[in-house]
Amino acid sequence: MKNNDIFIRYAVWLMILSISASCNDNFLDVAPTDKITGDALFSSQEGIDAYLANLYRQIPIEDFNTTPEAMNYNPGDANNAGRYPIIFTDNGIGSENSSITPAGAWDYNYWETGYRFNKEINLFKDVIDGLTSVDEDVKRNLMGQVYFMRAYNYYALAKRYGGVAIISESQDIGNIEGLYVSRSTEEATWDYVMASCDSAVMFLDQEPDPARRKATKSVALALKSRAALHAASVAKFWDRYEFTGEAVDLGLVGMPKSAADKYYTQCIEACEEIFNSGYYTLYKGTPANPEEASENYRLMFEDPNIALNEVILIKGFNEIGAGYGSNQDNWGNPNQTRGAWPHPGRFNPTLDLIDTYETYDQPGKSAPIVTTKDGVTNDYSGYNPIKEYLTFDDPQEIFEGKDARMFATVIVPNSTWKDTKIIIQGGYIQPDGKAVILANESIEVDGTTYYTFGASDPALYSGFSTFGGNMTRTGFGFKKFLSTSYVPRLGWNFSTTDWIDFRYAEILLDYAEAVLESGKGDPVLAAKGLNSIRKRAAHTTDIPLTIDNVLRERRIELVYENKRYWDLIRRREYHNLFNQRERKALIPILDLRTMKYIFVRANVPRAGQVTFNPSWYYKVIPGVGTSGIIQNPHY
Questions:
Q1: Count of beta carbons in the 10 Å neighbourhood of residue 282
Q2: What are the pLDDT digits (tens) for 568-577?
């Protein structure tokens, strides 16, 4: 068992709830006989942890269980075919799913979820206000938890909806008119998030939680850094797409460019306070070589508990089953290590991502995979017999010199995972020169039978076949977060890998971006932070502090940590990046004339073009017909 963490240990809470014979939903209502009082519940650490567990479970942390359907999506039948945020950006695509439309782009209704959570937070605050038998230090920290949860909840609302209704006190259900609260402006909402973070910082304990499971000052500062950077970006880049309508006219969405300055400043100040605390460093920041750097990076995500010097907040998973574990190991493993699970291989890293990784001999710029002697990397028309292709004895050779983090994040063709050589092949060139690509065929040459997909049976390969929807169609498999010890099982929610919500590398990158975009802060410190992340990846050459370098590094370092989607949203880049966009694949092909491998850059098979509708920068607000709330633009 891992550390007992407050995210998932409900046993005590359920026991307390069962003995509080009440049909009222409010767990902490103060009543004389039929409900547990706040003083009684919080008189022991067990009671405190029990109630916090219920609240922490509802914090909108976008972990392995964040899906288009819901937050914390791990029910008894969590069958969504692997439709997770991983596959809705230029970093990945699903083995069966290509869409980025709202049904598959985090468009679930957080409005109702967020306000249910807000009600519980306000109730929690009411009870803390009335506590009489609790130590003042404990009471102070509990109040800090209230403000942290409030800040996180309104951050989740603001980044989806813009300005929202601010309800900071429990409402009187007898006052019907008072229940209708209008939306505040987007700027006022972000200001409320900042103020709530500041209050959390003031009340929370200074020392980090030893297990990194509870909010402390540094955790609240990390949230402020992330939220402030988002708000600043929305203000600065608001005019990259011009919204119109009543919500815009009233300031319910959008902010003046001048507002960016205060949010960048708050981001910078929050980051600097974390730096100055001295609590955090990068995990194994000085590897001996790229191979060591790659394994260090991979291990940090397989078990974040080994990297507590870098980790600021963990969401822990140590139980299995509905409401507890996740399915990321089942969905993510390549077909050849599927175990008893029938639907693997659902997360396919794109060539778009692979091209972004640098090589060690050319630091500071992306290094697209070169497949032909002419060096052209923007031709996706498929195999052309006229072209002179580079040849390789082993498919892995084409990736030599790439950034160590790439090999910790993706499975490349012919590499080994769980003692299994992962075969990813998309075709062959016959001895007569005919190309057979993405067709399930075989041929005998000199007494040996060769197969289009590299092996005779679907159980023996992991790429390009349409069999079961279980094969990568990009040429790459998913690795980051996967457990080396977990054997995929038939059933739901068996993965117990912990999720890192905040870590020091993100803070370094937040700071660098805010410094560059605002002209404030310390550029020397920002450059040092940027290059320290790169040195942890075994780079030895410093690169200059430029926005292109920072954004590329952010994409690589934080890949699949559910940041890319929101980075494209906040910087208003989605509609330009995804305008009839086709994501890319790299197809290994065995040339039977030479018995060497060639590679073809291509559009992802069976995918097609996708376009981001700019209205999706803000989510649709439900129930406006009855609530009187003003709807977001263009809905």
A1: 20
A2: 999 999 999 9
